[in-house]
Amino acid sequence: MEVFYYLVFGALGAVVAALELSKTTKDRINTSPAFNSFKNNYLLVYSLMMAGDWLQGPYVYFLYSQYGFGKGEIGQLFIAGFGSSMLFGTIVGSLADKQGRKRACITYCITYILSCITKHSPQYKVLMIGRVLGGIATSLLFSAFESWLVAEHNKRGFDQQWLSLTFSKAIFLGNGLVAILSGLFGNLLVDSFSLGPVAPFDAAACFLAIGMAVILSSWTENYGDPSESKDLLSQFRGAAVAIASDEKIALLGAIQSLFEGSMYTFVFLWTPALSPNDEEIPHGFIFATFMLASMLGSSLASRLMAHSSPRVESYMQIVFIVSSISLMLPIATNFLVSPSKVKGGGISFSGSMQLLGFCTFEACVGIFWPSIMKMRSQYIPEEARSTIMNFFRIPLNIFVCIVLYNVNAFPITVMFGMCSIFLFMASILQRRLMMIADKPKTQDWTAMKDRDTEADPLNA
């Protein structure tokens, strides 16, 4: 493996270690033993769930290409996943609020395990079913677990500030350390042990099964709207009312969709961007490097959120601008550096520059996750938390589906440019959110929901 990869990984590791070791008491939050036990249980489950997800990440595109599918067909498979998340995500989110968040988390485990099993088949239709199942699972992963945590945290009467500690630790471990270990473990299975690109998916299924066992044995159930007679349509209407009645919720949803849409597009683009001439790149090691950069970001976020100033709404503007600039690098290198025509070989100079930019973007991702979680816990009403969070995912999935559907129609630099523009738009919306953060809602969500139900007694 080229020395360059080790240098980048080592530099990022040194910075993360320095950040963690240099933390003072001012950068830490004092908590109770009961909370620490609760937090550690959640972190264990979340880490196992993320291990199941991250093990698959670096090898989805690679596995499909090994089965003989081209970029267009792989794009269609990715579209199936995001389309499934868009169509079924809101439904499963509403069911999580209604039927219980613990049940939804168990459903995530079962659905994703089935998705992993389909990867053994080279048949396009079977892989398509796997992508649909994976899309449903993704919606649950990014809504049910957070909804369960927030509700359980409040039910147990823990300090609100402690919630940001759990968020930052979850991202540091689940989206950082676990992701790095998953990338290295996947690399070990595929390259060192030569078990083939399907091996990481089998390992992922094992971690998901272990996590499901922990949930079944240690979690209690909690719900959103306690109404016994509320159907799915009424829940959707209630979520729409909540978004329409509070500009802060609407802005938060738009910001999340713009950032995550760019992030998921990046997940698809980074492999062809770094190997335009089929250069041999260590997918697992590069993925681990990205996650180390994300770990660096979450470490910064934990420091920022431990203090009252600067506020999340303030510093996230800078994060979005930096992330926008970092995804402009593929465009800049395309104009400034003569593209190589040599097939195969190691990573090119432009590829090396892009890798550094991608690491910067991943650091922004590490700051984004705990920060957006904290803002969601502040602004989204508990009664329909999972439903509203999955409403947010509808525009992001539409955006990603459109990009992937036209993956062969536009050069890769155009798609990176689109992502960069959307991230800049997110910074503008974030500024607006900061300006109205302390503004009270014009109308109470619960009152509007009740009024809406009275106007339509058939749904009462």
From TrEMBL:
Keyword Amino-acid biosynthesis: no
Cited function: Mediates high-affinity intracellular uptake of the rare oligo-element molybdenum.
Alphabetized Gene3D superfamilies for the sequence: MFS general substrate transporter like domains
Alphabetically ordered keywords of this record: Cell membrane, Ion transport, Membrane, Transmembrane, Transmembrane helix, Transport
InterPro entries: MFS_trans_sf, MOT2/MFSD5
Protein species of origin: Manihot esculenta (Cassava)
GO cellular component labels: plasma membrane
GO biological process: monoatomic ion transport
Places the protein is found: Cell membrane
Keyword Nucleotide-binding: no
Membrane topology: Multi-pass membrane protein
Any one GO molecular-function label of the UniProt entry: molybdate ion transmembrane transporter activity
Transmembrane regions listed in the UniProt entry: 6-22, 43-62, 74-96, 128-150, 170-189, 201-219, 285-306, 318-337, 349-369, 390-406, 412-429
Protein name: Molybdate-anion transporter
